Amino acid sequence: MSEKKLTIGGQAVIEGVMMRGPELVATAVRTPAGNIEVETKPVNSIADRYPILKKPMLRGCVSLGESLVMGIRSLGYSAQMAGEEDEQLSDKELAGTIAFAFVMAAVLFIAIPTGAAKLFHFITEDPIFLNLMEGALRLVIFLAYIGAISQMKDIQRVFQYHGAEHMTIACFESGKPLTVENARNCTRLHKRCGTSFLLIVMLVSIFVFAFLGWPDLWLRILSRVILLPVVAGISYELIKASANSKNCVVGWAVKPGLWLQKLTTRVPDDTMLEVAIESAKAVLPADKIPAGSGEYIKKAETEAEAASPAEAGEKAEAADLPEVTEAAEKTE
User: Which residues pair with 28 in a beta bridge?
Assistant: First the structure.
C-alpha cells in the first residue's frame, strides 16, 4: 500500500505566512528588527474527534470554518509581531471578528446581488433567469472587490507573501530542498489556492441557487445563507478533485482560478521567501524536511545582530549633530 502524500497549505498574513500541516499550524513573521518569529500550535481539528466530518461534502465545511478561525488568529499574531497591535485577539474578540466578517460578506455577496437582480424584471419574470442574473452580479462584485483591493499598497505586500507561500509549497511538492533559490524558480500559482476556491464557490452558487424560485427578498437571503454549507462542500470536492487531475478538460476548468491568482499573488522578494520557508519547515515532520533546506531564522538573527551596532552608531551620530550645529552657531 502506497504512503499517503503529505500536503500542506497556508495563507499570507501581515509581514508573514501561516502554514498548516497534518498536525501543526505555524505562523512565521518578519519583525521590525528583521528577525523571523515563528509560532506553532496543534491543529486540533474537530474532524479528528468526529471522523464522520471527514466524509465528502462535510469535510469542506469543516475545512472552511477551521481555516477561517486559524487565519484570523494568525492575522492577530502577525499584527502583534509586526508592531501593529499590542495584544492578540481574545476568544471573545475572535468570535466578534468572525461574526462581523460573515455579516459583511453576506451583505456584499448575498443581499446586494439578490436585491439588485430585480432590476432585470423588465426583461422577464422567469425565476431561473433572475437567479442567474443574481449569480452574475455576485461574480462581478467579487471580481471588482479583488481588483480594487489589489491596488492598495499594503494589500500588495500581503499578496507578495501570498506568492511566497505558493512558491514555497510548490518547491516542497517538487521534492527540492526548501531554499530561496529553489523556491524562486517555482510557480506562484496553485490549484488548491483559496482564491480559486472562492471563485468556484461563486460559480457553484449560480447553479445551486438557480432553481430556488423567486420568493420575497428576506427569504432569498435566508435560503442562500442556509445553503452556503452545501455550496462550500461541493466547491471543496471540486477543487480537491482537480488538484491532482491530469484530465485536459479539468485543466482548462481550473484556468480561471489560476488567472485570478495573478491578481492575488505578487512576486515576493528573498526575505519573504525566507519567512515562508521557515513557516513550512515548522509544520513538517523532521524527516519530511528536504535535506539541504535553508536555515533562515539563524541567518536573520545573525544579520540583525550585525546591524545593531551600526544602527546604534548612526543614532548616536544623529544625536550629536544638533550639538555640533549649536556649537558652530555660538562660535560664529
Answer: 17, 38
Cell of 55: 466524509
Q: Please state, in angstroms and rounded to a whole number, the distance separating the CA atoms of residues 27 and 23.
A: 14
Q: Is residue 65 part of a domain?
A: yes
Max CA separation in the chain (angstroms)? 90
Provide the residue range defining the domain that includes 307: 9-314
Q: Give which of 229, 225, 224, 230 is closest to 209, Cα–Cα.
A: 224
Helices (H) and strands (E) in the chain, counts: 14, 4
Write 103-111 long-range contacts (CB < 8 A, 24+). 106/221, 106/225, 108/141, 108/145, 109/138, 109/141, 109/142, 110/138, 110/221, 110/224, 110/225, 111/221
Q: pTM higher than 0.90, yes or no?
A: no
Give the CA distances from residue 56 to residues 28, 60, 62, 266, in Å, rounded to whole numbers and listed in that order: 31, 7, 11, 33
CA distance 265 to 308: 33
CA 136 to chain CA centroid, nearest Å: 24
Between vectors from CA 263 to CA 160 and to CA 168, what angle results, nearest 5°?
40
Q: Is residue 163 part of a domain?
A: yes
CB hemisphere CA count around 93 (13 angstroms): 8
pLDDT band at 306 (very low <50, low <70, confident <90, very high): confident
Residue 111 lies in a domain: yes
Express each pLDDT in 11-55 by its tens digit: 999 999 999 998 999 999 999 999 999 999 999 899 989 999 999
* CA dist., res. 150 & res. 263, Å (int): 6
Mean per-residue pLDDT for 304-311?
Answer: 69
Domain count within the chain = 1
Q: Determine, yes or no, domain membership for 319.
A: no
- Per-residue pLDDT tens for 233-262? 999 999 988 887 777 877 788 889 999 999
